[in-house]
Amino acid sequence: METDACWAVVDGLTDHLVGRVALRGIDLGAGRAECSYWVLPEDRRRAVAVRATNRMAMWAMDELGLHRLTIVHSVANERSCGVALKAGFALEGTMASEQLLVDGWHDTHLHARTS
């Protein structure tokens, strides 16, 4: 059973790859998945991640029938927090020492969007 899906995000004028969005841990029975995204440094600050994440979320809810989507990011990643909020994912709370990154354990924010 497939539980993940990802899409390349390309510039519509040049077909240049600018990033990626993904649904991870898709659980159709429970109606939920986790969203992730990244954008190349030179293409940031153009709302690419916000637009792509919002579009993916709408598709996941409208076409897949998912009810709850989440985003988890390090509290140190303020830009990711901004993307989540602008894409309609409400901040639900902070999870202590939740994510192991190359520089150690990080507290994370949990954001969610429901249909």
Query: Structural class, from helix and strand content?
Result: alpha+beta
Which outline best applies?
A: globular
What order do the SSEs take from the amino end to the carboxyl end, as H and E?
A: EEEHEHEE
Major β-sheet profile = 6 strands, mixed
Number of helices: 2
Global Rg: 14 Å
Average per-residue pLDDT, rounded, comes to 96
Please report the distance between the alpha carbons of the first and last residues.
24 Å
How much of the residues is beta strand, in percent?
over 45%
Low-pLDDT stretches: none
- Helix % is 10-25%
Number of strands: 6
Q: In what order do the strands lie side by side in the largest sheet?
A: 1-2-3-4-6-5
Any descriptors?
115 residues, alpha+beta, six-stranded mixed beta sheet, 2 helices, 21% helix, globular
Fold and architecture overview:
With 115 residues, the chain is α+β, with helices and mostly antiparallel strands. It has two helices and six strands; from the N terminus they run βββαβαββ. It has helices spanning 48-62, 78-86, and strands at residues 5-10, 17-27, 32-39, 68-74, 90-101, 104-114. 25% of the residues are buried.
What secondary-structure arrangement, pairings included, does this model have?
Layout (H helix, E strand, L loop, with lengths): L4 E6 L6 E11 L4 E8 L8 H15 L5 E7 L3 H9 L3 E12 L2 E11 L1
Parallel strand pairs: 3-4
Antiparallel strand pairs: 1-2, 2-3, 4-6, 5-6
